Amino acid sequence: MQDKETNESMYYIAQTEKLFNQATNDLEAAVKKHGFGVLHIHDLGNTLRSKGVDFKEECKVFEVCNPQQAAKVLSADMRLNMALPCRISVYTEGGKTKIGLIKPEKMLSALSQNELLAETANEVEVKTIQMIEESKG
């Protein structure tokens, strides 16, 4: 079992003063600005509520992808298709809006020892963190 510090270093989470809907709109704009596409947005909060679950928080998970970076990853290790696309979440927790992701570099290094992937994963991580920072305001 991993300790909490190691586990926490896998995540990048930023808190914002923005309301949930504003943060989701701003994230979508930041994703596009950085040359990534939004493939899908999963509205987990509404999905759970629609299934009769008493879920108070909001949560939207954005599947984002940069085709050139995805092609590099898949060319290096096709099994990593299971880790794509990148996911960035906007969610509420205890009345606060947060935006976060599992760090691509940490995730891919845990899944593959291919050294070519480290550079690509780092480039994606830098961009996705920039997206979060821009959207949090």
Structure at a glance:
It is built from 6 helices and 5 strands. By secondary structure, the chain is α+β, with helices and mostly antiparallel strands.
Sequence-ordered SSE layout with sheet pairings:
Layout: H1 4-8, E1 11-16, H2 20-33, E2 37-43, H3 44-50, E3 59-65, H4 67-76, E4 86-93, E5 96-102, H5 104-111, H6 115-136
Antiparallel strand pairs: 1-5, 2-3, 3-4, 4-5
Helix pairs in contact: 2-6, 4-6, 5-6
Averaged pLDDT: 92
Strand order of the largest sheet: 1-5-4-3-2
> Which fold does the CATH topology refer to?
TATA-Binding Protein
Oligomer: single chain
Number of strands: 5
End-to-end span in angstroms?
Answer: 36 Å
The largest pleated sheet is described as: 5 strands, antiparallel
Low-confidence stretches: 1-6
State the order of secondary-structure elements, H for helix, E for strand: HEHEHEHEEHH
Number of domains: 1
Q: How much of the residues is beta strand, in percent?
A: 25-35%
Named CATH architecture: 2-Layer Sandwich
Helical element count?
6
Question: Roughly what percent helix?
Answer: 40-55%
- Briefly, what CATH class? Alpha Beta
Secondary-structure content class = alpha+beta
Rg estimate, integer Å:
15 Å
Structure explained in plain terms:
- By secondary structure, the protein is of the alpha+beta class.
- The protein has a single domain, classed as 2-Layer Sandwich (TATA-Binding Protein), CATH 3.30.310.
- The chain is 48% helix and 26% strand.
- The protein has six helices and five strands; from the N terminus they run αβαβαβαββαα.
- The chain has helices at residues 4-8, 20-33, 44-50, 67-76, 104-111, 115-136, and strands at residues 11-16, 37-43, 59-65, 86-93, 96-102.
- It has a five-stranded antiparallel β-sheet.
- The longest helix has 22 residues, at 115-136.
- It is globular and about 45 Å long.
- The termini are far apart.
